[in-house]
Amino acid sequence: MAGDGRRLEQALDTLDEVVYVYDESFRLVHWNQRLNDLFDLSDAELEGMRPTDFFEDGDHAGIAAALEEIVETGETVVEAWAQTTEGRVRFELTGRLLTDDDGTMRGFAGIGRDVTDRHEREWLLSRQNQRLDEFADILAHDLRNPLAVANGHLELARQERESDALSAVGDAHRRMGRIIDDIRTATQTGALAATLEPVDVAAVAAAAWESVETHGARLDLPEALTVDADAQRLRRLFENLFRNAVEHGSTSNSPWTDDGETTERAVRVRLVETDAGFAVEDDGPGIGSVDSERIFDPGVSGATDGTGFGLYIVRTIAEAHGWTVRATESETGGARFEFDLRPS
Known about the structure:
Blueprint: H1 2-13, E1 18-23, E2 28-31, H2 33-39, H3 43-46, H4 60-73, E3 75-84, E4 87-99, E5 105-114, H5 116-160, H6 164-187, E6 197-200, H7 201-210, E7 218-220, E8 226-229, H8 231-248, E9 268-273, E10 277-282, H9 310-320, E11 324-329, E12 335-340
Helix pairs in contact: 5-6, 7-8, 8-9
């Protein structure tokens, strides 16, 4: 048995991670060689040290809270900075409670991992997102001002006379406004984060439909469908899907209206429940030659008046909920977007 214990110690000493055991008074009683090497301390110096002794003052409160969590829940994970022989290191520290058979606390054990690179990547990504957010704000502001001036002059021109050319200019202005709004939504830090609660999907979809120019299209809704979602983000998702269906459905081969006569702009959109979640489909011409994965990329649009950001926003909102979405073909040959709400 003694030989087995020695082999275990040798094995632990080969690890890049720090292994530690503290007693019930939160004093260090066992560790591997990695801890000696990182802090250039002997076994005699390490014996009895407290968890906070290794880390920077600014992280002491977080470590103290983690120790309380171990006692209360039996485990914890916390991150902290330390000055080591290898420089300043960000550690991810785990802790698991150790107890006797009768439940008496005997201390805790855990592992410390160097997550400095991950932390730096996350920090850089956060900075990049912040700068992108600032850039989008400036871009939106600087574009909206001249667009407002252009709209003002357009209205003055229309007071003098109306023409197809002026109508085309008005359509272009509206599209520019939508592009600005979509870029802002797609780049705004936290704008697509989701706070989940039970939501009546049909009610949210109906509200989204009312805010979209449907041009005679019709929406079919399920009688009852409840999912855990962020209602505001879900409405934005539906608005983009419905707008996409109406824009692409204008050339539908199966248009219909209440009186049975055909119309170029009429398309039927359905929200249906599926085994995995729900789907939105239409009876338009489908996604055509656009790749079913690439269709969610920013800037990709199959409609002449599309912004190219609508389906990108749909996917981003879905992913913020922890969902996946895929584009496929409906039974009528139109577009179908299926949302899988099951956890990965």
